[in-house]
Amino acid sequence: MGNLFIFIVLLSFGLCIALPSSHDHHRSVRIVGKLPFYNAFNSTLENAKQNEFPWMVMIYSNKSPIICGGTLLNSHTVLTTAQCVNGKNPNEIFVLPGIWNAAKELTNIFTKRHVVSKIIIHEDFLKTSPENNYAILLLAKPYELKSNKKSICIPQRDNTDYLLEHNAMCVMNGWGKINNKLGYSRILKKVTLPLVHRDNCVIWYYKLSDDAICAGRPGRKFVGQGDNGGPLVCPDPKMPENLMLVGIYSYSHEKAPGVYMKVAPIATWIEDHLWANNLRYSVTCRM
């Protein structure tokens, strides 16, 4: 409780700042999200509008003042990175959907938080490697999807080459701190980021895992501590009103493009675990 109180105080003062899988004909079909905000993308870090990113959640621990991002995939399920929750018990992790002004809304945190019943870390994740950096959080009770709490879907197949070919611009958002002087943001931030071709990104990172994709502008840092696990959402270049979750933020070096974990390759993995827990959902988009 003490750590949580400290975290809330820090935010208050700001510190400056789906198609069913082949083995399941009962799973609900997902329709890709449709929102108009891509018409107004800005290449600078700025405050998001309230309810602009209804799939975005904040993840925190009651034993340490951590903060991570996550994505609502359905009323029971949140996707984030393994780095965020590895080694933690479900009873110390909470999910906060629909948060915009964290400094204000976290004062009523106990009425907004959702208890996690199960943490599923990708079986091939290793703390010493950035590969397979995925985790699923299953909520103890489903929440009602409404205007400020909506899920988003995952492409049916890896479409990063298609997005790169069409120079797709994607959006990342979170409450993270870009440097230690500024601290966490009070208001949810957003920034438009271009996808970066793999051949250009390895210049910064030497080696990238096959499940990684880069986004950002060299020389400018837009994401940082606290953004881990946050969503990278892209429009379909041919139908820009259709939005999909393409990646989740994993790591970055100073002034280098950020590295995100592709999510299309793990759609079946997610659905298999949902099925194993009697949750008959599809997480893939129907375009």
UniProtKB/TrEMBL annotation:
| Residues of the Peptidase S1 domain | 31-275
Q: Which GO terms describe its molecular function?
A: serine-type endopeptidase activity
The record's annotation in SUPFAM superfamilies points to: Trypsin-like serine proteases
Q: Which residues form the signal peptide?
A: 1-18
Keywords assigned by UniProt, alphabetized: Disulfide bond, Signal
Q: Which domain of life is it from?
A: Eukaryota
Q: Which Pfam families match?
A: Trypsin
Name its GO BP terms in alphabetical order: proteolysis
Similarity comment text for this entry: Belongs to the peptidase S1 family. CLIP subfamily.
Q: What is this protein called?
A: Peptidase S1 domain-containing protein
Native organism? Microctonus aethiopoides
